Amino acid sequence: MDNPPVNTPHIDYYALLNVARNASSEDIKKVYRNLCLTYHPDRHLDPVHKQQAQDKFTAITAAYETLSDPSKRVLYDTYGLEGLQSGWELATRVKNPEEVREAFERLRRKTDERTLAERLNQKGFFKLELDARRLYNKHTNRLIMPSISSMYLSQTSRFKMTSKDTVHVSAQLGTGVAFGNGALALAYQHMMNEHTTFYSTYRITDTNKSHVSLGWNQNLSKLMSAQLETTLIDLRPAYATLSLTRLLAQHTLGTLAWTVGTLNAIKFNVTRAVNDRNPLSLEVNINPTSILHSWTQDEHTYTREYTRYANLGDVDVCLSKILKVSKRSVVKVAAKAGVSNGVGAEATVLRRMGHFAKFGMSVDIASRKGITVSGIFHRGSYKFEVPVLFTPEVSPWSLLAATAFPLALIMMTKILVITPLDALKQR
Question: 6: closest CA among 69, 87, 85?
């Protein structure tokens, strides 16, 4: 005789204990004691009867644990075993069954929203660059509003078609002084098995050039994986990238990427994270190919020159460390050295303002670029960043202003915004 498992949808706990649905807790407890005396495994010597009694005893115990608990009984009466097996947890010490139902409905709505967000997986990024180098005019003794130097906007959506097929749709738009650009991309990813993934991307830019990328990701072993990607521009071979990722030590991961073709670069990254709170990362870019933008302005026209550099001596190095100083605050520090920006450092402070919001400030100091202070705001999977270039030169007074201004702004935000919101939430 094969008894069904305990937690299956067709089991009726009331019928299993042979009690009415409006039975009191004392009646359920009395019936449960009598059934335990009958079906206790120690009262049966025959192996077959002992196993049947064990299954029956387990089933009635599960039924009693559910019906004897007021919160669990309300969930079972309202939603059946689905409510018990869904993993939802209700607030403790509720007053009546109506509060249990309300808490359950709230948790179910949150779960539905989380499921929808996971299916769409939308991500967005907005960046507005301001130029405040001429903030003060010493001839007129007036303050001049910062000017907008560039703006960038991107949106990405991921759609899970099946358990192995995923579609990505993304769009980018950028604008600046006398220039603009944009792109639209459609990507398809197919997981062939647990070790192999194939993906392809079609991207068209504002210059009507089509970029087609084909990629292959393969797990070579438990410690190493490889990724090969080739890109065609207007159906002509442009460049290819080979990436190797390996677990170098117990908490250390290394990545080596080599790009050949119209773009030539070598990228090396090592990340060490003893725990998820304080990772340490080192990134080295050798021979990075990029575009330097320089422009001059007169009263009537704008002139913009593009200079491409790809010398063998170009090297960019970045060493970063993330520190979780409290439950809500994270600090990231980085040291940089490179050809385009020179030697510099960057410090970022992020503080969580709620379940889905984070606010922070960043200070970037570079010997060839100057001092840039950025305001950062995260809302869910969307990020907003406003970097402001204060001065192209690094001096003691500019360093003092760059460090004092963000700290003062953070303290004012905490006093005027965060603390009142926390007090209101507690009330």
Answer: 85
